[in-house]
Amino acid sequence: MIIILNTVDNKQITIKDAVEFNFTQSTDAACDSFWATFFVSTAIDEIVEVRVMQNDRIIFFGYCDCQRITRDENGYKVFFYARSCAGILVDNEAEPTTYEKPSATQLVFSVAQPYGFVSKLPEIYSDSLYEVQKGASCFSAINKFVKLLTGKQIYVTPKKEIICLEKSEDVRELEKYKLLKTSFVINRSEPCSKINFKKQSSNVKYLIHTKSKTCDELRIDRQKYINLSAIPQWQRENTVIDTIKSSFERYKILEAVVGGYAEEPLNQRYRYSDDICDYGELVLSEKQYICDKYGARTKLVLRKDIDIKEITYVD
Fold first, then answer.
1. Which of 27, 84, 112, 313 gives the lowest tally of CB atoms within 10 Å of its CB?
2. How far, in Å, CA of 206 to CA of 236, rounded?
């Protein structure tokens, strides 16, 4: 692992012996993150850019959010925390606009290309209006459009390319790794059982309902109310379904710790079963590469896709 830092005064610092670091990627977060601690003989200037190389391949490029330099009798100890370049799209607000029959590529051109990003998205377009509301970030303006139309999320690579996160075509066996620890987690506090909504602002009551029959089977009762009158028709229906499906993303997860660096992409599909439970097929949703006094290891978080069995009805 090699860490390359660029400072505000255009100096480059290469770190090969970090005391500890943590590199996290997650489908739940727009940005990858990387933090590290290392020692230097002299104080360093303000860190701007961070690049991380693994096996001659760049795995992280981003910008420093915070750094701390501590001086004592042993010298200088430096800590920094950085988010990937996607942080630019998260921190900047998109202009509120109603697009007429836009494509994903058009949205990237309008809200992300000015910051140096390029589209590597497939042909995704709407045959209706798409509204970017006040307060939406540049990232969410693109991601929401793609997710509502395809059910998939976007991801920003270290090359500042915006791609669509696709599930892998192949299904791998998790046992190929030396598993140091596994934990199976059930989060019953997250699934949403029913969305009550209205499509017109003139409606007094929320008379339309979409519910998950899976929640009935699991004896989970958790409702939300949404006013959809301000957004185009196609966004209304997709927003409701996406809200329920998203609430199930961390309902059942497997946490596995493996030795060293697991060079696996997000959304890689796996099979796994043991004497506790047959997990069936799982999808990699988070990866943490950790190095500290206990050695180097990768924590893999894999989610179970759940059929929510949705139905929609009117009072």
1. 313
2. 14
264 touches 299 (CB < 8 A): no
Spell 234-253 as b/e; 16+ CB within 10 A means b: ebbbbbbbeebbbbbbbbbb
Strands 33-40 and 75-84: antiparallel
- pTM for this structure? 0.88
Q: Nearest 5°: phi and psi at 182?
A: -135, 145
The average pLDDT across 156-176 equals: 94
**DSSP element (H, E) containing 164:** strand 161-164
Rg, the chain, Cα only: 22
The structure tokens 């009762």 sit at 221
**What does DSSP say about strands 194-198 and 223-227: parallel, antiparallel, or unpaired?**
parallel
pLDDT tens digit sequence for 271-294: 988 877 777 899 999 999 999 999
Show the CA angle centred on residue 295, arms to residues 290 and 297, nearest 5°: 45
Spatial CA neighbour of 184 closest among 83, 262, 275, 245: 275
- What is the distance between the alpha carbons of residues 207 and 313, in angstroms, rounded to a whole number? 9
Alpha-carbon span 220 to 239, nearest angstrom: 21
Determine the 3-state secondary structure of 104 from DSSP.
helix
Structure tokens at 208: 């339309």
Q: Residue 213 belongs to what H/E stretch?
A: helix 213-218
Q: Do 12 and 54 meet the contact criterion of CB atoms below 8 Å apart? A: no
CA distance 284 to 167: 9
Torsion of CA 7, 12, 18, 23, to 10 degrees: 70
Would you state the structure tokens that stand for residue 218, as one six-digit string? 């699991």
Residue 68 has pLDDT above 90, yes or no: yes
| DSSP letter assigned to residue 250 | T
Using CA atoms, how far apart are residues 224 and 194, in angstroms rounded to an integer? 7
CA distances (Å), origin 137, targets 18, 89, 247: 34, 7, 21
CA distance 174 to 301: 12
